[in-house]
Amino acid sequence: MKILIANLGSTSFKYRLFDMTDEQVLARGGVERIGSPQSKCFVEADGSREEMTIAAKDHAVAVKLCLQQLTDKRRLASPKELAAIGFKAVHAKGITGVHRVDEKVLAAMEAFNDIVPAHNPPYVKAMRLLAKELPDIPLVAAFETGFHETIPPSEKHYAIPLEWAEKHGIKRWGFHGASHRYISERATKWLGNPEAKIISCHLGGSSSLCAIKAGKSQATSMGMTPQSGLPQNNRVGDFDPFALPALIRATGKTLDELLAILANQSGLEGLSGKSNDLRDVEQAALNGDVKARLALDVYIASVRHYLGAYLVLLGGADAIVFTGGIGENSSTMRAAICKDLTWFGIDLAADKNKSAKGETRIDGPTSRVQVWIMPTNEELIVARQSRDCLAFSLAS
Fold first, then answer.
1. CA–CA distance from 22 to each of 26, 149, 230, 383, 384 (Å)?
2. Contact, 37 vs 54, CB < 8 A?
3. CA distance 225 to 392
4. Where are the domains of the chain?
C-alpha cells in the first residue's frame, strides 16, 4: 500500500510517498509558487534531487504533476497505485480524529476558517480541487486535535459559561497532535516504560508543549486556536482579550485588523521588530539588539512556564523531549529553558547539548530526568492513520 502525505501552504505543496508495507519513504518532493507561471517542481529519491520549472495554476495541477513525476521515476506504476492522499489537517467544527474527506468534513473545516486562517482555507480549497480532479483517490484528513481527546475536563475547559463549551465547542483543543503522538511513541520505546511521563516540547515556527502519561495527552499549551499558548514566530500566543477594546480606542483599528496583527505580525516578529525566524533573532540578540533579546526572553519564559506546570501536573517526568526546528537545532534555547532546574532533577550536559545532532540524549550523569532531542515524523503518523482509516472503511 502506497500513501502520499500532503503538506499544504497557500502557494505550496510538499509530500512524502510511503510504502506502508515497511513504512519506507520512497520519495519526497513538491511544488512551490503555485499560481505562478514559474512554479518550481522538485522530487528527491535514491539520494538525488531533480527540479523543473512548470506552470501550476492550482494545487490539483501541482498534485497531478507530482504524481506524473513519481510515475516517471518509477515510484508509482501509475497514479491509480496510490491508495490514498493523507492530510495533516488542523481543526474543524465538531470534528476531530481521522476521517475520509467528504462534504461534511469540508464544511466543518470551512466553519473554522476564521479560527485557523493560515491553515484551513488552503487545505479546503486543495481538497475540493483534488476530489474533483482525482475522484478515484481517497482523501483522508487526520486532525491535529485528535491526540488531545484524552485531556481531562479540568485541563480542557476554560472558565466560561459551560454552555459555550457544550454547544459551541469553545475548549482547549490543542494542536501538533501528530508530532506529540510520534514523540510519545518514540520516547516510550526508548524508555522501555509504557507508563512513562513525558513532556514533549515541539518548538519551531509554531510551538507547543504537551504533558503525556502512558501514551496519552494530559494537557497541552495551545487552546481553542493555534494562536494561543507559547509565542509563535508571528502569532501572539497567550493574550488577554480584554486588551482589545483598549487597542481599538487607542489605535482606531477595527477588531478584524487587530486580530490580523495578533495572528500575523506578533510573536517573535512583533517583539523583536526584526524577523519571525529565531535564528535571525538570536543573531540580533548576540549583536546587542535589546528588542531581540526581549523576544527571546519572553519565548523562554513562556516555555518554562508550561514546563513547570506540566512537571507539577504529571508529578515529575521521566523524559523531556525537544523537537521541531528550534527544539532540534538551537542549543542556546535548550540551555536557557533547562537552566537552574537541577532541583527538579533536570541536569543538561552542556557539552552534549552544544554538539548534539539527530536523535540523542543530552542530560548529564546526575540528571534524574532524561533529556532528549528527537526529530519528529508527523508524516509517518498521518500515513499510519490514513492506512488505518482506509482499513476501517473497508471493514465497515
1. 11, 29, 36, 12, 11
2. no
3. 29
4. 2-142, 194-378
What residues pair up with 84 in beta bridges, in sequence order? 3
Name the architecture of domain 194-378. Answer: 2-Layer Sandwich (3.30)
Does the model's pTM come out above 0.90? yes
CA atoms of 33 and 38, how far apart (whole Å): 7
pLDDT digits (tens, 9 = 90+) for 20-40: 999 999 999 999 888 888 888
DSSP E strands, the chain: 2-8, 12-19, 24-32, 39-45, 48-54, 82-87, 98-100, 139-142, 197-202, 208-213, 216-220, 319-323, 360-361, 370-373
Q: Output 258 or 393, whichever has higher pLDDT.
A: 258
**pLDDT for 168 beyond 90:** yes
Question: Is the CB of residue 115 less than 8 Å from the CB of residue 169?
Answer: no
Please choose, from the candidates 352, 310, 319, the residue with its C-alpha nearest in 3D space to the C-alpha of residue 335.
352
Indicate the residue type of 136: D
CB 68 within 8 A of CB 54: no
Residue type at 59?
H
| 91 CB-near residues (< 8 Å, 6+ apart) | 109, 112, 115, 116, 119, 120, 143, 144, 145, 173, 175, 225, 226
Can you list the pairs that 37-45 forms with residues at least 24 positions away whose Cβ atoms lie under 8 Å?
A: 41/65, 41/66, 41/69, 43/69, 43/70, 43/73, 45/73, 45/75
Place of cell 524577523: 275
Would you state the cell numbers that stand for residue 145, as one nine-digit string?
A: 486535535
Closest residue by Cα to residue 386 from 78, 101, 30: 101
pLDDT of 285 > 90? The answer is yes
Q: How does pLDDT run across 344-392, given as a tens digit for each residue?
A: 999 999 999 999 999 999 999 999 999 999 999 999 999 999 999 999 8
Residues 6 or more apart in contact with residue 208 via CB below 8 angstroms: 174, 175, 176, 180, 202, 220, 221, 222, 229, 230
Q: How confident is the model at residue 10 (pLDDT cuts 50, 70, 90)?
A: low
Positive or negative CA dihedral for 152, 155, 161, 164? negative
At 121 the three-state DSSP class reads: helix
- Fold match between domain 2-142 and domain 194-378: yes
Please count the CA atoms within 13 angstroms of the CA of 235 that sit on its side-chain side: 20
The fold adopted by the segment(s) 2-142 is Nucleotidyltransferase; domain 5 (3.30.420)
Can you say whether the dihedral through the CA atoms of 142, 148, 153, 157 is positive or negative? negative
Whether residue 395 has pLDDT greater than 80: no
